[in-house]
Design a protein that fits this description.
single chain, alpha/beta, Adenylosuccinate Synthetase, Chain A, domain 1, Adenylosuccinate Synthetase, subunit A, domain 2, 3-stranded mixed sheet, 19 strands, binds guanosine-5'-diphosphate, binds 6-O-phosphoryl inosine monophosphate, binds magnesium ion
């Protein structure tokens, strides 16, 4: 299989985890390249549901090596919790199967505090972050006052570094927000103990990934969040703090653009968003409630109800450009079954008073059949096939994987390379 970047084309939760699990059957390595445990990627294998926040979604394939790349921000306690859960489930990740880049930045407890306190201070004007410390950690990385996982291996160096960084954090916490300060020695002890447990998994992600590439193996770059949560290209300031677009895979995983063969965009058959920010095709009332209920649209990380709306063609066309999409995988088509008509936003008009975008909808014929048991594209009802083909035409990228349920097996393939 070629080397593939998998990205979300909307505002996250498109079903990236499921698709990465399906594709990882043909991969030698899966690497996460950005974000942190703000992500929640759900896999359903043999009826058992697993949610991963940091560990790549290839982890249920023993032959696939999973890598947390240098561009990821890692909360060591969360990562250790995920490893423990895998051990409890009888699937302990061997150090050879899971490798965590020692260059990845550490989310410290004060990052989570600052994320939470800032959101609280903003009241109703907040971004609606996941409060996992993502933004404050990336800020420190760019400001060159971050701590990297490798630093947790050396107590005296970590102590010296935190001695410089911590006073500013403590002043911010206590004087600006009236929150408690951190004790340097206690924080160092805590971080060093995490480091000791993580030590068997830490290493050089660049060596591993390029080793696979040089041997002719295939690497899958697993994106988190979605295109319109990208810090440059998303609905700023209602975005996350990393580059979620396919280009982010190069910087975050340490490969060049020439190492990547394909970019697969994951797209829901409708649209959802968690947190604040613009969402032009959002639907309120019973229609929105129905999508949320049938699609079980509640955040995999925070449990928050997701905002729901219709498919937005101009949005996905833009995502195709921003990511250089070569193919699309469409998820959650089964959620639309039973709707007599399915509205799709095909373009925007401008509101003459304030210039805001007004979606213009076309209604597609719905289908009544349950499609969750379909095992091939040909078994889908004609109206469902028409929905897929029309959207593919309107977006301009072919839809080659169709997901009709959360299970690994509820996946229909149309293209050639997925099956090789
Ligand atoms: P991710 O963050 O992009 O990996 O997506 P999430 O895991 O946060 O959210 C996707 C949700 O939809 C999860 O609960 C999946 O189990 C579920 N899911 C994925 N594909 C399908 C599908 O085709 N149909 C249905 N009904 N659920 C799906
Ligand atoms: P996956 O990988 C959906 C959203 C948050 C908030 C904004 C900023 O599961 O698709 P942050 O905590 O990153 O500073 O929050 O981004 N957000 C997500 N929404 N899925 C995600 O990840 C998300 N990760 C962050 O809700 O609006
Ligand atoms: Mg998710």
């Amino acid at each position: 299989m070629p080397n593939i970047v998998v990205v979300g084309t909307q505002w996250g939760d498109e079903g990236k985890g499921k698709v990465v699990d399906v594709l990882s059957r043909h991969c030698d390595a899966v690497i996460r390249f950005q974000g942190g445990n703000n992500a929640g990627h759900t896999l359903v294998v043999d009826g058992i549901k697993s949610i991963f926040h940091l560990i790549p979604s290839g982890i249920l394939r023993p032959s696939c090596r999973c890598v947390i790349g240098p561009g990821v921000v890692v909360d060591p306690e969360v990562l250790l919790g995920e490893i423990d859960k895998l051990i409890e489930a009888g699937r302990p990740p061997e150090p050879g199967q899971l490798l965590v880049s020692s260059q990845a930045h550490v989310i410290l407890p004060y990052h989570c505090d600052l994320d939470r306190l800032r959101e609280r201070a903003l009241g109703g004007q907040g971004i609606g972050t996941t409060k996992r410390g993502i933004g404050p950690c990336y800020e420190d990385k760019v400001a060159r006052r971050g701590i990297r996982l490798g630093d947790l291996m050396h107590r005296s160096a970590l102590q010296a570094r935190l001695q410089v960084v911590l006073p500013e954090k403590n002043r911010m916490l206590t004087e600006w927000y009236g929150a408690p300060a951190y004790d340097l020695d206690e924080l160092v002890d805590r971080m060093v103990s995490f480091g000791e447990r993580l030590a068997p998994y830490l290493g050089d992600a660049i060596e591993l990934v390029h080793g696979v590439l040089e041997r002719g193996g295939s690497v899958l770059f697993e994106g988190a969040q979605g295109t319109f949560l990208d810090v440059d290209h998303g609905t700023y300031p209602y975005v996350t703090s990393s580059s979620t677009v396919a280009g982010g895979a190069c910087a975050g995983a340490g490969v060049g653009p020439t190492d990547i063969d394909e970019v697969i965009g994951i797209v829901k058959a409708y649209t959802t968003r968690v947190g604040a920010g613009p969402f032009p095709t959002e639907v309120q009332g019973e229609s929105g409630e129905r999508l949320r209920r049938v699609g079980q649209e509640f955040g995999a990380t925070t449990g928050r109800p997701r905002r729901c709306g219709w498919f937005d063609v101009p949005l996905i066309r833009r995502a195709a450009r921003l990511n250089g999409l070569t193919r699309l995988a469409m998820t959650k088509l089964d959620v639309l079954s039973g709707l007599p008509k399915i509205p799709v936003c095909v373009r925007y008009e401008r509101d003459p008073t304030d210039g805001s975008p007004i979606p213009v909808y076309t209604e597609f014929e719905g289908w009544s059949q349950d499609i969750t048991q379909c095992t091939s594209f040909e078994q889908l009802p004609p109206a469902c096939v028409a929905y897929i083909k029309e959207l593919q035409e309107l977006v301009g990228v072919s839809i080659e994987l169709i997901s009709v349920g959360p299970g690994r097996e509820q996946t229909l393939l149309r293209g050639s390379f997925f099956t090789t």
